[in-house]
Design brief:
With about 220 residues, this protein is of the alpha/beta class. The chain is built from 7 helices and 7 strands; from the N terminus they run ααβαβαββαβαββα. It has a single domain (about 5-215), classed as Rossmann fold (3-Layer(aba) Sandwich). The protein has helices spanning about 5-10, 30-40, 60-65, 80-90, 130-140, 155-160, 200-215; strands spanning about 50-55, 70-75, 95-100, 115, 145-150, 165-175, 185-195. Helix 2 (about 30-40) runs parallel beside helix 3. The N and C termini lie far apart (about 35 Å).
Length: about 220
Amino acid sequence: MRKKELEIILEGVEDLSEADVRSEQYMTPAVVAAELLHFAFMRGELSGVVYDLGCGTGILAIGAKLLGAKKVVGVDKDARCIEVARKNAKKLGVSVEFLCCDVRDVRAMAADVVVMNPPFGAQRSNRRADRIFLKKALEIAPIVYTIHNAGSEPFIRKFISPHVITHKINAKFPLKRRFHFHKKDVKVIEVEIYRLEGRKEREKELRQGFISRKLSN
């Protein structure tokens, strides 16, 4: 599936009618979701078990399944999000398992990849929420695709060490008017999509590269 085709399909994912500002419930725009998912897909990393932490109404989870993931699990603590996510998955004809729980309670021993758009931690009631998601994601999967505010790279590198950032993609995030303090109908913010790799996975990749170079010589 081409990226633009995926984006068009994901435009059909419905959002919450009323969002919670304290939890920073912003639906991932289809254009950003397609960018993240298609990049992972082209690397051959969406074929196994995929978890979407803080799945909201399911756009990343549904997109991963559309791209051929064997199993997809979406996790969100808001029961309203889970209800809408299930409706969206049914509407788009995919099978996704949705769990209503706090991400800190997730126990996934067989996850291959995490895809997520975690809270940016901009609200006082939600400070450091991004750290909770990063920690859990790298705990349950060797590879993580995640979206953050532009300029987050130094913090992320330090926070996830000894795990590493292997790729970064700059993207524009069209933020629709949602809460009373929004001044514009649409505000475009700069975000970055990161591919993170767990230490063990990175060490394995480096060893394989070293062996390949030795054999070629």
